[in-house]
Amino acid sequence: MRLNRPPDVATNPEPAGGRRVAAGVVRTLSVAAVAAAACALSALPAMAASSAPAAGTVDTTTTVTNPANDVWVHADAGVAVPLTATVTAADGTTPTGTIEFIPQNVTPYAAIECSVLLNAEGTGTCDVTPPTGTWGFILYEATYTPTAGSEWTTSTSTGEHKVITWDITNTTLAFSPSSATVGKPDTLTATVTDEPKDALADAGGGADQVTFTANGTAIPGCSDVNVTDPSDGPDNVATCTYTPTATGSVSIKAAYLGDDYALPSSATETLTVGSATKLATKTTVSVSPKTAAEKQLVTLSVTVTSSTTPTGTVTFWVSTRKLCVVTLSGGKGSCKAAFPNPGPKTIVGDYSGDSTHNTSSGTAPLTIDK
């Protein structure tokens, strides 16, 4: 490393004769030698006076190597993070002086400014302790200040040198309606906020997502739901629709997945699912023919009516014997059965009901001749 010196201080000149003279040794020169030397010197052009470089004439470049431009360093707020910068000079010398790291996108805090002397390689490293930034990151800039009176110029780093401080987030979960009904959709709403109550979708580039589960199982269509930003709807909100299939208590969980700026968080709430007030139904059974021979196939038909069209199944019985099961289509269905024993029969059709229709039964007489 070349040491700096003030520009008005000259280098130590070599003694006459091109080498230093040992102590106690006396050398004499002849008159002829002195005259010859004077003559030779007078024949040379006048030499420019030797001087040191003027102060501040050598350009420098300051480069932040940790974090490098477009490379993010993650840190927890209140935890020290080492930042490193290197200063190079245009003439190949190694600058001396100090490096100061200054935050650019937040009000400067004393705790996150640091200054360090360059080492013999022109590099300086010091620790900063960032608080949580407004948007979850702090942009740092390194400024080089040369040693007083030296030949190097000041310089400042360029680019975005980011220290990411993860925001602590909070997720809440709400249901609409607050109590669900079997077979009816319920809206699940997750709201995600961070400590400064910032817009997560804005801070994270719109990549924030929430996944909803019911009793630990992913709800169809409710995985990786985007958190909205102001241009899409209510800020920091993710919603999905859940349709319960059974009564009871369901554990619903909304899990915010986190992003480059924010830590994950979740909320779990219990959704109570009740039965719906179902519609009354009427089941009408008919047989064809009404009188049949032994082992002759008989068509068993059913129609289930209500204020809306019922769905589900109808099971046909004779006494305790199950004859056949039909699935309703448009509230109607039919199947065939044969009877080996003669006599009067009563055919019963039991309707299963569905999410909005109550059960019901109907009967029809049948005679089997010998």
- What low-confidence regions span 5 or more consecutive residues with pLDDT below 50? 1-54, 201-205
Largest sheet: 6 strands, mixed
Supply the CATH class of the largest domain: Mainly Beta
Overall geometry? rod-shaped
Structural class: mainly beta
Radius of gyration: 46 Å
Could you tell me the mean pLDDT?
Answer: 80
The amount of beta strand, in percent, is: 35-45%
Under CATH, the topology of the largest domain can be stated as: Immunoglobulin-like
Helix content: under 10%
- Span of the ends, CA to CA: 122 Å
Q: What is the N-to-C order of secondary-structure elements (H for helix, E for strand)?
A: HEEEEEEEEEEEEHEEEEEEEEEEEEEE
The CATH superfamily label of the largest domain reads Immunoglobulins
Question: How many separate domains?
Answer: 3
CATH architecture of the largest domain: Sandwich
Total helices: the number is: 2
Number of strand elements: 26
Please, could you describe this protein's structure?
With 370 residues, this protein is mainly beta. The chain has three domains: 60-165, Immunoglobulins (Immunoglobulin-like, Sandwich), CATH 2.60.40; 169-274, Immunoglobulins (Immunoglobulin-like); 282-369, Immunoglobulin-like (Sandwich), CATH 2.60.40.10. 5% of the residues lie in helices and 44% in strands. Strands 2, 4, 5, 7, 8 and 9 form a six-stranded mixed beta sheet that branches. Strands 11, 13, 14, 15, 17 and 18 form a six-stranded mixed beta sheet that branches.
